[in-house]
Amino acid sequence: MLNRLKTWARAIRRDVVALWLAGRDPATPWYVKALALLVAGYALSPIDLIPDAIPVLGLLDEAILLPLAIRGIVALIPPGDMARHRAAATLVVERPVSRTAAVVVVLVWLGVLALLGWIGWRLFG
Description:
Largest sheet: none
Structural class: mainly alpha
Strand content: under 5%
Number of helices: 5
Helix content: over 70%
Number of domains: 2
């Protein structure tokens, strides 16, 4: 059961990236492109429609609504195009992640926030 759940989660992750790629593909119809980018953006965003702090309902969007939206939009994309996007998404998802780069990005953002705080304190403090 745990292996099935992991496989399902990997497929959802791959399909989110595939939707992002389909949303940027000129061959995708504009309305599908808009829906694909909207759902992929929401899936990749750290902001939730329903906050996770709310018991049971907090996981509703990630566990039920998001997979249903992904499945619905995948159905709107021609199967040949979706297979191509899934193949490209598999390569993207399997690419190694650089933890050093992630630390650098976080440090840059913290530096920018500190700079903005300092400027705000100097101007308004």
